[in-house]
Structure formats: C-alpha cells, structure tokens
C-alpha cells in the first residue's frame, strides 16, 4: 500500500451487459458516494463504449476490453486505440487472461498491441495471468516473468500503464487466493520491475490483483503492501463494485462506533 500510487479499480463488464444492464449499473454507481482517492474505471464492450461514456459520471473512466495493433485497415471485427479515443474513452485493457487463454493471443501479439497503443496516448491496463496448470506444475515465476518481460519491452511511457495480475485459478472457481498468496505474486512483479526496468517505475506503477474480488475480500486485500487496486469481473455487475472502489475508505460502522463515545475511543 503506497500513498505514491493512487488506488485503482476497474470493473470489467466482459460480454455481460446490454443497454438495460448498463443503465442499471450507471444508476447505482452514480448514486453511490465513491472514494475520490480511487481512480475508477469500467471495462465496456466495444459496441457500447459511447453509450456508457455518455451516461457515466465524468469521474468514472471507460476502457475498451481489447484493441488491435494498428490504427486502421482491413481487419474485420477489430477496433483500434484511435477509435476508442474517438469514442471519448481513455483506457484499453490488453492481454486480458481471457484473450490469452480462450483466444490464444500470444505474448508477441499482446506486446505489439501494447506498443501501438502506447504510440496513440491511450492508457493501458496490461494483464498477466497464472493458470492452475502453471501453479500445479511450478512454472508460475517463469510464466509471469516471461509475460512481464514481453510487455515491458513494448512500454516506453510507464505513466500511462497499469499492470493487472490475475490468478486464473481463483477466478470463479470456488477457490480464493489468500492475502499472502496475492501479496507474494504482486511483490515478485514489483521486484521484477525494480530489477529490470527502474526503481522509479517499480515505485510508481500500479499493480492490480484480479480473481474473484468481491465486497467480502476487498478490504483485507486492499491493505497489502504491493497491491494498488483491483481488476474486477463478476462483482462489477453488482453494487459490490461500490464497496470495492471504497475498499480503502474507513468502514462507516467503525466510524459510528468511534464517535459513539465521548472520549473518541471505539465503543
Ligand atoms: P472475476 O474476473 O472478478 O470474476 O474473477 C476478473 C477478470 O477476469 O477480469
């Protein structure tokens, strides 16, 4: 946990919304009191980027969930960072674990996408992931450092990049990563940045955790030394996302208990 790095939460809607569902999410996110010390973003399907941008409060940024490695051309089905920016959105998620595993995007392709996105000025949430096979076969470090090396080689401006680590084995599997497991992975990634990029980048780059983050586990995880926020899937469709954005804000019930006693001590 560092005051140098602003807490960051992205709620990734994946392919789970339509206009009615976006309207509902916009309603509860707009009505909530969101911690101004958190940078809040939603990850939106490409066909709804403008729709979501026009409806969300300005404080909530919008990210596309993918983009291609060139600005335009004959690439049916793809969108470019320029198009995302032109839709009024500032962020793109690249290398999401579902792109890596389901759509078989290679480190090389993701690196090319990141390199192109960096040239356009769009801000990037660059993802890495550990699968259950990686973990069981003891190759987690090799896989994570390999993904990080490939991403880092394409990044010239780290101030416009957030790194997200997903424990895929803990995403909607019924198994949760412990706080110690999350801290260990994030610390390794920060150490890699320190050893291979620079102290400045290691100190200033936000590293997020993903994998079944919810209103039940976000407060404990939010206190971890090397954790700077969350990439959230399922809970982003529910009012839970508000609790996750507010995960570092003092708990209202403890404040009430605090003010209950004239001496200011907790009741
Ligand atoms: P989850 O998804 O929070 O549902 O595990 C995270 C993600 O894959 O973006």
Automatic annotation (TrEMBL):
Domain of life: Eukaryota
EC assignment: 5.3.1.1
Keyword ATP-binding applies: no
GO BP annotations, alphabetical order: gluconeogenesis; glyceraldehyde-3-phosphate biosynthetic process; glycerol catabolic process; glycolytic process
Keywords: Gluconeogenesis, Glycolysis, Isomerase
Pfam families: TIM (PF00121)
GO CC terms, sorted: cytosol
Top-rank EC class of the record's enzyme: isomerase
Coiled coil (UniProt feature): none
Annotated InterPro entries: Aldolase_TIM, TIM_sf, Triosephosphate_isomerase
Catalytic activity: D-glyceraldehyde 3-phosphate = dihydroxyacetone phosphate
Entry's Gene Ontology molecular function annotations: triose-phosphate isomerase activity
Name of the protein in question: Triosephosphate isomerase
Organism the protein comes from: Penaeus vannamei (Whiteleg shrimp)
């Amino acid at each position: 946990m560092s005051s140098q790095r602003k807490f960051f939460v992205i709620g990734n809607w994946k392919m789970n919304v339509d206009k009615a569902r976006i309207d509902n999410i916009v309603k509860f996110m707009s009505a909530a009191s969101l911690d101004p010390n958190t940078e809040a973003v939603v990850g939106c399907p490409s066909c709804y980027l403008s729709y979501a941008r026009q409806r969300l409060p300005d404080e909530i940024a919008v990210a596309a969930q993918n983009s291609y490695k060139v600005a335009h051309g004959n690439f049916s089905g793809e969108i470019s960072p320029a198009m995302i920016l032109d839709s009024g959105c500032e962020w793109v998620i690249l290398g999401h674990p579902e792109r890596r595993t389901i759509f078989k995007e290679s480190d090389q392709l993701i690196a090319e996408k990141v390199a192109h996105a960096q040239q356009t000025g769009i801000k990037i949430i660059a993802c890495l992931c550990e699968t259950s096979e990686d973990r069981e076969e003891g190759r987690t470090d090799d896989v994570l450092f390999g993904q990080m090396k490939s991403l880092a080689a394409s990044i010239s401006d780290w101030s416009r990049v957030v790194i997200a680590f997903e424990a895929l084995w803990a995403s909607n599997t019924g198994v949760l990563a412990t706080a110690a497991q999350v801290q260990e992975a994030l610390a390794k990634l920060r150490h890699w940045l320190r050893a291979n990029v620079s102290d400045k980048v290691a100190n200033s780059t936000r590293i997020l955790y993903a994998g079944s983050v919810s209103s039940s586990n976000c407060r404990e995880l939010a206190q971890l030394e090397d954790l700077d926020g969350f990439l959230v899937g399922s809970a982003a469709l529910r009012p839970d996302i508000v609790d996750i954005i507010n995960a570092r804000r003092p708990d209202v019930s403890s404040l009430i208990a605090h003010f209950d006693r004239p001496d200011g001590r907790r009741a």
